[in-house]
Fold this protein.
Amino acid sequence: MEIGIPKETKDQEFRVGLSPSSVRVLQEAGHHLYVETQAGLGAGFTDDDYESAGAKIVSPGDAVWGRDLIVKVKEPLEAEYKFLQKGQVLFTYLHLAADRKLTEHLLDCGVCAIAYETVEQPGANKLPLLTPMSIIAGRLSVQFGARFLERQQGGRGVLLGGVPGVQPGKVVILGGGVVGTEAARIAVGMGASVKILDVNVERLSYLETLFGSRVELVYSNSAHIESAVKEADLLIGAVLVVGKRAPILVSRELVQKMRPGSVIVDVAVDQGGCVETLHVTSHTSPVYIEEGVVHYGVPNMPGAVPWTATQALNNSTLPYVLQLANLGVQALEVNPALAKGLNVNNHRLIHPAVQEVFPDLVS
């Protein structure tokens, strides 16, 4: 099979769909790899690295996009829509519930679009291709939050770890899944006061085995959210509903009750976000101030650490890419987890959660 690996065009997105080591595995399996020139440079991989692994380096446009299988990291942007073809397989993060325009184009062009974030193994929320980036985004959320709490960045001037005689900063995390757990891990390591809210009591019990008394674990309801958010120096949105838009848990009125210079980092922004006042930003311009609060809404946070993130992602995606390359769309029949990743195929909207968001697009 011919496999294309385009260079990512999202703002400061330096990850790449396949690393040279992954290319080598696919080449050894008899497949032909076409890598857009400098596609991996931001992640530390040169064109020579890819050529040594057996890939052909090609120019932007049809030379890379005109292939049977396209492997990316982030969703196609509008400038790339024209390259998508009927019958082609697109394998990448899509987050369609927050992007009607992309959903409509994928339906129009007839591509077979499989989303990393909805590939799901048997069991509750076992999302093998979302998990590695969720780990990174969760850890980065505190790292970035700590930076923007600095006074020079518009924040309150709070040191999350505090110092002897001065209380530490308060980190409130909405959601105790992978993102929330990793955010708590870093915040605890920094010495912050940490609180996690989640609706799943079993998950809260599990988190207690991880953190013990170092993290305050609270059942999530509107009253508890309001109380926690008002006292937060750093609020982290870590809510995931597979395939669906994230629910709004923090209203504008509640943001108004936060202390001036507090920081919100919403990792759920690529699914619409769970904070009413938060909208998508970029690595180039990551924050804005609204209601006196610093808002961070970068949807591709792991793009800040592309060397780590590309390899972590490839460790999880490669078996699925190899199966798609070997079997084509028949891989969806063989692998139920991969089949759950199918969002759009042959002009039809397939994934149930996305169908609920856009019922008028269901044929």
Q: What stands out?
A: The chain has two domains: 2-119+306-361, 131-303. The domain at 2-119+306-361 is CATH 3.40.50.720 (Rossmann fold). The mean pLDDT is 96.
